[in-house]
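Design request, tokens follow.
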């Protein structure tokens, strides 16, 4: 005789599980919370926010590389628009979740490596050269405010 496996609410209807979990939290019904899945979801949210910030930094660095090292004036406006958008979105992320600031150096290293790889791949056959290391200050304030192409001589 085999027992039927009953799927949990989490597995059957994720949105209903969220509503139920929120209701239990609001009413203080902590004894009946699906703690295993709740913990998993909270950890996932943290990973997601970190990933979002790292990806925005990668896009920012990629467009900064293009703007700094590719002489195509017809592209400058588009690259600068993307730079502004990413900077704004990173600033908002860091205002909403200031504890993510402590990961900046780690994010920067990964984002730099990936952005450099992407840009080099995109422009490999066009003869453009990009530096192996970031040539400017990499602190948050500088990265979100300095138009590096205006400071180059």
């Amino acid at each position: 005789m085999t027992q039927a496996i009953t799927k949990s609410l989490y597995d059957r209807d994720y949105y209903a599980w969220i509503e139920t979990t929120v209701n239990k939290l609001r009413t203080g019904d902590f004894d009946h919370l699906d703690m295993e899945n709740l913990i998993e979801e909270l950890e996932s949210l943290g990973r997601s926010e970190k990933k979002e910030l790292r990806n925005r930094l990668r896009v920012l660095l990629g467009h900064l590389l293009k703007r700094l090292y590719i002489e195509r004036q017809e592209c400058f406006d588009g690259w600068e628009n993307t730079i502004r958008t990413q900077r704004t979105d990173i600033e908002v992320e860091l205002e909403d979740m200031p504890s993510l600031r402590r990961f900046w150096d780690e994010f920067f290293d990964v984002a730099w490596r990936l952005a450099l790889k992407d840009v080099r791949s995109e422009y490999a056959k066009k003869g453009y050269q990009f530096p192996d290391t970031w040539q400017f200050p990499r602190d948050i304030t500088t990265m979100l405010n300095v138009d590096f192409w205006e400071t180059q001589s």
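Comment from the thread starter after seeing the answer: thanks! The chain has a mean pLDDT of 91.
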